Amino acid sequence: MTGSDALATYATDESDVEGRMPDAVVLATSGEDVAATLAVADEWGVPVTPRAGGTGRTGGAVPVAGGIVLATHGLARIKEIDRANLIAVVEPGVVTGDLHAAVEREGLFYAPDPNSLDSCMIGGNLAENAGGPRAFKYGVTRDWVLGLEAHLVGGRTLRVGKRTVKGVTGYDLTALLVGSEGTLAVFTEATLRLVPKPPLLATALALFTDVASAAAAVGAIIEAGVVPRCLEMLDAATLAAVRAAGVAVDLRAGAMLLIEVDGEASEAALLRVGEVASAAAGSVDVVVAQDAAQRDRLWAARRMLSRATRKLARHKLSEDVVVPRSKLAELIARTDEIGEATGVRHLTYGHAGDGNMHVNFLWDDDAERPSVDRAIGMLMRSTVDLGGTLSGEHGIGVSKAQYLPLEQSAELIALQREIKHVFDPKELLNPGKIFPNIGHGGC
Ligand code: MLT
Ligand code: ZN
User: Do 58 and 399 form a contact (C-beta atoms < 8 A)?
Assistant: First the structure.
């Protein structure tokens, strides 16, 4: 595909990263298409940007060096759901929510649940090692991948990993490729681990006067010995956006926890969580969802946060920093200090259970952008100071590449570049991602 309107569709993702118009887009429908594209790219020295759903937040699917966008959304088959071995074999263009529905019809469960699950695809989830609310109990995409079919620049096809739960043969290249942000290989098939669908669910929201109280309650819930599958937190500014979107929330509340437990003992566990939350300082109310419809409404309100908060300003950037859970309150306090120091409007929500918070910066006037960049730099430094990491689920991509040296030593970055060189000596695959100024991305 080379028409200019068509090319423009493949020049962006859901980040604000501005790339270069690709010269061509390949709409692959088979592994052979992917291998042939990577062979031609190698022969002619053309950069290739792989892409599945294009819902990424850090520019991972944005072609910063032009060349070819290799779109894999046309490989969209669920090839197998193996009940006996608890495995699904899927192609990269399967929408994550469709995979959930398909395995749940069989009484099975695939846990990774990025909030964009109605549009994001397995290929992007693999590339970014995506997480979601259920990661607190069940882990992220990497924890559910047993094996991959992957293609290298030049056209070689690799099968890595296994179809068994156990298996320690050789280096764990599956773990390396998942989360490599499309810089090492292009996936055409994944063998995923499944588990039986947890039998029962119980969901509640707990309201607090302020985020510091909500953050303290997160610690108290876990100390009480309960591991909810989701433990989400919304701050006051986020609650204001939720109210503006038409959802009624007690006006006394300046923070909310959305808590979900699963398994046979879920009702008893939720009762315990409710007791702990009610006894916590700053508690306003605890409301238990009475039925599936009410639970779905709570989750719909949570899942629409990214879109609802986008309406608050012309520009919005959602970071996904992670700190040790015990530092959650300090991260929120530092975020407020950063807002005051830079004058940049912000709000925070996210996966409090695993310390992974979406600090969102909002601005209307392009002249504010330098202050926003200052605020982001301060947030990244604070995160690392608190013992955290720059990205919990959105990846480094283009947006955060310049901050990588804050977290990782020069030696570690150099070693990763050497690994990249082994897979892709000409640095043609997804240039400009993860590492500051590497390959064609630095042109
Ligand atoms: C979320 O948790 O809603 C997503 O990761 C997207 C975001 O809001 O940044
Ligand atoms: Zn998230």
Answer: yes
pLDDT tens digits along 212-234: 999 999 999 999 999 999 999 99
Half-sphere exposure of 138 (CA within 13 A, CB side): 26
Residues whose CB is less than 8 angstroms from the CB of residue 318 and which lie 6 or more positions away in sequence, other chains included: 57, 306, 309, 358, 359, 360, 394
Per-residue model confidence (pLDDT) at position 442: 43
d(CA 263, CA 269): 9
Residue from 306, 311, 316, 357 whose mutation best tests the ligand 1 pocket (most atoms within 8 A of CB): 306
Q: What separation in Å is there between the alpha carbon of 210 and the centre of ligand 1?
A: 21
Flag whether pLDDT at 114 surpasses 50. Answer: yes
Burial class (CB in 10 A: 0-12, 13-18, 19+), 164: exposed
- Say which DSSP state 328 is in: H
* Beta strand pairing call for 255-262 and 195-196: unpaired
The finding on whether 306 has its CB within 6 A of some atom of ligand 1 is yes
Asked if the model's pLDDT at residue 439 lies above 60, the reply is no
Among candidate residues 235, 263, 407, 255, the one with its CA nearest the CA of residue 321: 407
Q: Which residue's alpha carbon is nearest to atom 6 within ligand 1?
A: 306
C-alpha–C-alpha distance, residues 356 and 322, integer Å: 4
Q: What is the pTM of this model?
A: 0.96
* β 201-208/255-262 pair status: antiparallel
Instruction: Indicate if ligand 1 lies below 6 Å from the C-beta of 440.
Output: no
* CA dist., res. 386 & res. 380, Å (int): 10
Which residues pair with residue 122 across a beta bridge?
A: none
